[in-house]
User: Which sequence fits this backbone?
């Protein structure tokens, strides 16, 4: 039997209702939406148009042509940042972001730095929550873009998007948010929140892999990153992935309908998970913000336990130690490091990503399993014995988090 | 009833056998291949590995890790050209290509020109066939890349890939080919043909839209164009489109098995189509090379007839006047222009893209339909009346093709 899936930040299963809407475009309706000389192409074009409206409605965009379809959020993030920075109307300027952003942002700003752009990271506290005053201080006359994620994929911390948007608009700086984890979990409205660019991924919200979108507010000019044919108002060329786009549209419509009830259900499940772990296991740390947090996320460090051993022992539940994009490497999470968690503790961390399929029974199952194995693994740890006996173990680098005013 | 589909250069239907292989990855096997801490992720990873081997085997690549998955051929073309040109180890240099390339090549070299690269177009004759001696002459010490399509999507002309590869290898210049139209129709082997970079699209060979690949020969260094997480050996970041990739692999395996018989069948159909049109309609011109031609392509100019009117009249068959990427515009084909066809004649051109579903009955149907409507539409053309009466109509710009030693 397959493990219980509890890694919904990495990816989500395709919802059967979304698949049902995709199927015609994987069978009879196979036209290329650019082939408008015949009905096959026009039929595909209509499906793309409809999906564009569904995505726009979901995020509160005023015009569906503000939606640019991409191959996913990584491409959307790249298009947002490079599209702003490398547009011929702009010079080499300044970018603002967070050290806890997705690698699609961090690797891209790193590349832009090598090309002569300057980058500053807005201060975050130990919960990963950003400092709005510091943002105000950092904005310069040559600041080209503020890019702040709506929610962190590892520790679940939500950022004050509307407040950032307000500051950005006042200061005349475009504002991009990678909303991949937040969409479908918390309400986002690009007009209300003054967002200029917003990255979307289908597969994080029960849609298919290989498709995403970038919301580009009217008037924001981007340099295209993939050229050839001028699709998507010249911002992104290439034959449109019709089935994927239909799936993204359907996923958005479904998320809008289900979100209020489902997010509340997940929040209750998550709080139950946190409560049981904190009540029934000692030496645990909840990483991320306790309140401003994705309803489906928990992230715990279990001191004195090696994370990989714990994941292996708990393999009846599919969990991860961090983001999918870095979990293959043996490095500890850069997100936990950025909020000041010591390496030793970061190595003992597990991310819980709840989703539609998860139940209270799943939470009980995983907590019982964790308890069993955390206790067993700690029995092999001399440090745990010392801690229990009251010996000061901070000298061994444990619990640096609690002292570090990062 | 839907029209008969005869636009297989624009896109092809997803083969039901390919869809069958995709389905598990749209349902139960939904893992993120980067989530290797659990079985969901590892299962997805194995599927991607298998597809990588299928694609590699299909094009004769020696190692499956020479395959970089992309969102399609447009992205693959962009990665090949920009990846070579913008790699930090290389300076601003020189690129060689054809004026009849896909827009993904032409728009990309145009952009690189603006960034200080120089571009030369290798001479082509009126059949679109490139001049190997001219290629030899054009290569300079700073030539960074030769990019020549394996087959043209409009006029079907095949290029002498192996000869280009030989020259490129001798002169030490990397060689890229956009093989989108050729793959699955004519044999291509990257080792035999000395190809360094090759672009693949799934949806042109009965696979899904939204997925493609770039073959990158070992040792060829590319600058990544989409950053974030270092997937695909650092050359292309972003969550892998598992279902799409499985579909591409399956399409490659299927094409390898079916190609010899199917290409021969299509060649016979195509020759029958060409023969009937040439025998039964006057003032027609076959565009493209008569011999070195895709087995499934025909492209005819029907003088004295407006192409759009003819397409509309023949709407029981899905045809196009050119490539999908430009057919929405009212401009006449840049490919026909590049081989020296006058605008007036280019406007009367129709592309026939035969595929698996097409039969001899379809060919008879389309030829009968064309005859009926060409004759009817010509009755409204004073130029046609003059031509029939032996009046010199070249003064009206007809038939420029036959005089222009382009």
Assistant:
């Amino acid at each position: 039997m397959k493990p219980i899936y509890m890694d919904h930040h990495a990816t989500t299963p395709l919802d059967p209702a979304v698949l049902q809407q995709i199927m015609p475009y994987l069978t009879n309706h196979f036209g290329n939406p650019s082939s408008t000389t015949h009905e096959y192409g026009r039929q595909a074009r209509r499906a793309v148009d409809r999906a564009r409206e569904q995505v726009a409605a979901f995020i509160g965009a005023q015009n569906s042509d503000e939606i640019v379809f991409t191959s996913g959020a990584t491409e959307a993030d790249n298009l947002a940042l490079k599209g702003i920075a490398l547009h011929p109307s702009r010079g080499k300027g300044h970018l603002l972001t967070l050290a806890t952003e997705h690698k699609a942002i961090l690797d891209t700003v790193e590349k832009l730095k090598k090309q002569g752009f300057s980058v500053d990271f807005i201060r975050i506290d130990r919960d990963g929550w950003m400092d709005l005053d510091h943002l105000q201080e950092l904005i310069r006359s040559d600041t080209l873009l503020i890019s702040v994620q709506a929610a962190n994929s590892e520790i679940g911390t939500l950022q004050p998007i509307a407040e950032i948007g307000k500051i950005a608009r006042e200061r005349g700086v475009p504002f991009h948010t990678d909303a991949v984890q937040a969409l479908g979990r918390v309400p986002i409205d690009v007009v209300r929140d003054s967002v200029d660019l917003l990255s979307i991924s289908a597969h994080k919200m029960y849609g298919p892999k290989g498709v995403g979108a970038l919301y580009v507010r009217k008037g924001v000019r981007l340099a295209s990153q993939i050229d050839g044919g001028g699709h998507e108002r010249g911002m992104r060329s290439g034959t449109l992935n019709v089935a994927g786009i239909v799936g993204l549209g359907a996923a958005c419509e479904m998320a809008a309908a289900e979100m209020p009830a489902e997010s509340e259900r997940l929040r209750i499940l998550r709080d139950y998970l946190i409560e049981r772990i904190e009540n029934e296991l000692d030496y645990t740390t909840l990483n991320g913000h306790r309140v401003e947090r994705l309803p489906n996320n928990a992230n715990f460090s279990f001191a004195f336990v090696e994370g990989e051993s714990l994941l292996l022992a708990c393999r009846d539940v599919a969990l991860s130690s961090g983001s999918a994009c870095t979990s293959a490497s043996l490095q500890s999470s850069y997100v936990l490091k950025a909020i000041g968690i010591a390496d030793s503790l970061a190595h003992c961390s597990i991310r819980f990503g709840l989703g539609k399929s998860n139940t209270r029974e799943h939470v009980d199952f995983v907590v019982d399993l964790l308890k069993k194995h955390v206790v067993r693994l700690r029995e092999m740890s001399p440090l745990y014995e010392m801690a229990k006996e009251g010996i000061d173990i901070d000298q061994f680098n444990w619990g640096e988090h609690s002292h570090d005013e990062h």
Q: What stands out?
A: The mean pLDDT of chain A is 93. The CA atoms of residues 143 and 172 of chain A lie 9 Å apart.
